[in-house]
Amino acid sequence: MPAPPVDLAAEIARLKTYPFLAPLADGTLKRLQPNLIERRYAKGETILRVGEYSDTAFYLKDGIVEIRMAPAAGAENVPRVAGARAVDGGATVLQRTGGQGGLAIQAVQRSGLSADGTVIISDMPADLRPGHQTLVEPGELFGEINALARYALSSDVIAHTDVVCLAIRTPALRALFKQPELAAFKEQVDNRYRQRTLGAHLRQVDLFAGLSESVIEGLRQTAELLSFEPGAVIVAQDAPADAFYLVRGGYVKVAVRTGAHDLSITYLRKGDYAGEISLLLDEPWPFSLEALEYVELVRIRREAFQQVVESAPAVEQRLWEEVVRRLKERGAALRNPLASQYLQMAMDTGLIHGESVMLIDMNLCTRCDDCVRACASTHGGTPRFIREGNNYRHWMVPNACYQCSDPACLVGCPTGAITRPLGTREVTINPDVCIACHNCSRRCPWNNIIEVPFYSPVVKKEVDLPTKCDQCIGREDGPACVQICPHGALTRISFKDMPQVVRTFTE
Amino acid sequence: MSPIRLDMPAALRPKRRDWFVAFVGLALGGLLVFVVLDVLYGWSPGDTWGLIFGGLATAVMAIEVLYALRRRLLLKPLNTGQAWLQVHVYGGTLAALLVLIHIGFRWPHGLFGLALLLLTLLTTISGLLGVVLQKTVPTTLTSSIGVEAIYERIPEMVADLRAQADETIKGASDMLQRFYGSHVQPALAGPAVSFAYLMDVHTGRERLVTDFKGIQSFLAGEDKTRADQLQQLVTRKMDLEAHYTWQNVLRGWLLLHVPLAMLLVAAIVAHIAAVWRY
Fold this sequence. Notes:
The complex is a heterodimer. By secondary structure, chain A is an alpha+beta fold. Chain A has three domains: 37-173, Jelly Rolls, CATH 2.60.120.10; 205-335, Sandwich (Jelly Rolls), CATH 2.60.120.10; 349-506, no CATH class. Chain A is built from 14 helices and 26 strands. Chain A has helices at 8-16, 26-32, 144-149, 170-178, 183-204, 213-222, 276-281, 302-311, 313-335, 340-349, 370-378, 439-443, 480-484, 498-506, and strands spanning 36-41, 46-48, 56-62, 65-68, 119-120, 127-128, 133-136, 141-142, 156-159, 163-169, 224-228, 233-235, 243-249, 252-258, 261-268, 273-274, 288-291, 295-301, 357-361, 386-392, 395-399, 418-419, 428-429, 450-456, 461-467, 490-493. Chain A has a four-stranded antiparallel sheet. In chain A, strand 14 (252-258) and strand 15 form a beta hairpin. In chain A, helix 5 packs antiparallel against helix 6, helix 6 packs antiparallel against helix 8 and helix 8 packs across helix 9. The longest helix of chain A is centred in the middle third of the chain and has 23 residues, at 313-335. Chain A starts with 7 loop residues before the first helix and ends with a helix. Chain B is mainly alpha-helical. Chain B folds into two domains: 17-145 and 253-277, no CATH class; 151-250, no CATH class. In chain B, 75% of the residues lie in helices and 0% in strands. Chain B has helices at 17-41, 48-71, 81-102, 111-144, 154-169, 174-187, 195-199, 205-216, 222-277. In chain B, helix 5 runs antiparallel to helix 9. The longest helix of chain B has 56 residues, at 222-277. Chain B is elongated and about 90 Å long. Classes of the chains: A alpha+beta, B mainly alpha.
């Protein structure tokens, strides 16, 4: 049955009832409206699940939501996201949030909160401890960091009462942040990121892990938060040294100009940084930075950076080591431009997202298909990959899940059937929960989720169930395909380790 | 002075040097024992040492049989598939040598003994042929042929090319239609295993180019484009057929090796039973 036509005027009028959207022109709202959806949740209903990747931020209009952090019973239960420091559990706390509404949330039980006992949940508008919960009141925005920077959710978000909220999908969220009328709203969101997340984020970067509170505080106060669209030049080569950049989301290409072309040296991803070379040497940028996709950055100005260097000799030492490493990398790329083609290929094809990409050496592979048979026998008779794919030199990248660092397939699964437990690498689909809506297979940019006939206990009929390589999770000897290959033709490689990738492809 | 380096052809170069060294060590050890004992006391398959070597050969061959079970995943995975294959290759070769030592490097008496020896040698040689093929054919497939295809899907892919060609020829001139019937359709038939591809994976290309060049001079407008597209389809089909032929070779040698190995196992069982009985 076709969806009923949308009454645009009514829809825009409804959106205008949200205070933060009120300054926007009708035309803007009309354009954004498909990605701004009012949703209602009954008391007890789950809005977001821990470990999920979400492409939606939520603005709470009515009702109260509860943010629950998993108990710290074991390390495996403790969310490991930017900003989350695991501490022992304690009494349940419902505590005040410093949100837009400004009202206090009453403390129901409060005990045992020590100065360092509070875990900062990077992606939620509240401070939490494992095993505790926090109530969030109307006027708050939550989930925006996950949507923008593609972090896994650190906690469950559940409707504490009946709830009305505005679901803002990522494209609309990016567009909203660009509206001049919403500058104050953006500033407020950025401020909260500075207060709640940036400190933890900085501490998660090895380089800054040992900095004192006061230095971190100084960085927090002065850091700027920047967003870039795909293809945008963040810093041009030879630009004056003016800032240090920390990546909080997306991928950044680092390239050096050679003749009429750019030669890729490396790429940066979440947690990586750049700018130390030009700042320490007081030289113009020796390479350029370009956004490969939507990129979120933290910009630390030269003065603040200098303070860090002066206050922490260990950091300065690390930075100098990094300078040497990067300049070596740059020199190696310039000396051997052919090696750079694999990096460029990885960036062009999206392989840089791969945490564990299957490669087959076709000079060794006898096409015996023992790998496919081994996969099938490990997975109830159905293989989870197809021995077909793109070839680079004598290597094939078959259609097998790359176990992406930011898995797009995990976004929007209606039943939570596709998951990656926090701190693990393998993305798995639970067939007992999957309803075969194909959301994940449609979202996979590499077509690595294949569908096979399966009797679903959920919908009680035969469906085309999405399946994917799970690296034989739980199998003692690791992936069966790699183990079984009689010619050692199969390997798995992380595209995080670019030198290893180049070595593999050029050997 | 730099050490002298002997470069082996890639097909003969051992994948695992340690396995090769162990194999050579065991082989030389066995030969040494045989030579010493033969010189000192003489040698007979029925003597203690002859029987010991026969027993060793049987034991190694029993391990060889396990590889077949392992490939069919009937055994719990132990170590890697690569290690199993190395054991199979070196073990098989060693077993043949042990058999030769067992019979004292002399022709056996009787027809059965001769058959047993021949089966041992043929099985080993066919196995080693497989090793050479497995080391050389993949490189040929990867470096010389412009396509990669799953063997079972090749007929389907060729059929798809035929369908594309049928679609391309629609609305073409009589001249091109006739050329299509006489040259393109036969060239798109199959796929069939062709010995010519074993000699040269690009066999037939020059003739194809000449034929298409010849017809191009009689064509005009859209027909020229059609002819180009048809040439690409035929070229792709030839690539697929070359792949098909070579993949057949990779699979086909097993049709030689496995029946021989099965016969050998049966013959060994009969031989042991006969020795035990008589």
